[in-house]
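Running co-folding for zinc ion.
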Amino acid sequence: MAIRTSCCMRLLVVLCLATMGTLDTASSGYAGREAESGESSKEPAKVKRNKPMSKSDADKKGTSDQTEIRDRCEMETDALLKPCLNKTGDELEECLLPYDKAVNACVNQGATPKDQKSLTYYRIPYADGTNVKVGRDFNTHNPFGRIDMHGKGGGTHRIVAAADGTIRYIQDSRTKNQWPERLFRNTRSCLNNYVWIEHANGEWSKYSHMEFGSTTIKAKLKEGQWVAEGTYLGDEGKVGCASRDHLHFQIYEIGTKPEIDSNHGDFDYHVNAEGERVRLGYLDHRNPQFLDLAGNIFTLKDGETYVAGGLPKCRKDTECPSGHFCNAGVDLDKNRCMPLKADNDTCDIAGGGHQCKSGYCKFGRCYTPHSVGWGSTCYTDEACAEGKCSDVGGLKGVCVCKADADCSSEGKYCDRGADLNLNQCKDKKADNASCDLVGGGHQCKSGFCKFSRCYTPNSVEPGGDCYSDDACKDGKCSAVDGAKGTCVCKSDSDCGAGKYCDAGLDAKINACRPKLDKGEKCGKLGSVGNDHKCKSGECSGVPKYECK
Ligand SMILES: [Zn+2]
């Protein structure tokens, strides 16, 4: 890249840094504006007085705070940048390393990237046989989480898809390189060319700075098009914020509804697994894992050179590294070693078990037999620890029960309701525990439910807790219609044959007692109405009170 007369330029750079702080740097490092601070092209929020801040105002505010942090950090470290401005290529890249490091440390307040690995393997995104040198790796790129690399040797370097996927965004209409020209202009925008591919594993890959027209015209690609790993995407270039010809490559783990900034082409927001719209940052990046033809697994390292090649081909599982299977299909050229899949990942409907960690596949999903608890995701009954899957035929459901017979033991019942997703086997209930008012008997150990309470018929001794008369051994329940009471009697007719009701003022201690024999005590001083206690039907009065 050509650099203007250094005298004039230095002056301008200093002015520029002092007044705007717009310089993103780097080997692509310019990337500075591409991601976390990606909204740099937007106006800072103007929040009106006496008006609550709206959600979108708040978002912009957060953005402008982030931009300010980056601006400050870049200004503080610009002394490390200036000596690099008259350098090019590898020399420039090397020169900018301390600057990028200092900016990263400042922006992230000393934090280092969380080196989260990609879920599956990628190939180095250059045509087979290209010698590719890594200028910035996942940890040294400014900002963290992206990778810069370039093809070595002369000529055009062809960029290819790092894995199978669907092209979601293409921008290849731009021609301008903004290094270092952008420093002189009153703009914060990186106008990059880029391609985004969405992969089946939920990760997205980005390819930036490619040559004008090389994606749509030369490679004839369109948004929405599916591409196989190794498909030509365009030519390496330096369009936008790139300090040299190189490929800026990044892997994002994205939920749904990514919101792209069409200038630099990075994503600002997405909707996460919890359904919240949240800002994407470097923590959402994944360090891509690569697999070479010899089965070696590696991540890219700063300064290293790699030979690009496809993912290892295979014909059977035994040719793959451990923890992998051979994804053998009809087209043998596409057979590749792939990591074994977790439960609920897709697998081939016919003979897909070998693709699963568990070894089991049904309805096109991996599962571990009898492993899934209530309410958790299933695609087949066999996956559920007990009961069944709420959906049939391989649709996504949760483990539930539909009938008591679905439960594993006699001591359990199916707690089924209107919401099938909540159905589950539960331990049958003891007497006095609550049960469904209608048809609740199956929930009870006894098999009986009345007034929403389990009970064993004729089991409760006088004075014991009851909710219905039926629970009392003799007599009745002191409360009615399901309120809590105790087993009592109110009159002799509440008691069985040969018994009388020992009724007192306190209904709770009333009890049925066997009728008394002759000579037994049937009253005390002052009591009346004792005759019904005696088998004979007569209780003597004062002073003895004995049955006759
Ligand atoms: Zn980059």
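Result summary
Residues 1-61 have pLDDT under 50 and may be disordered.
Residues 214 and 234 are 5 Å apart (CA to CA).
Job closed.
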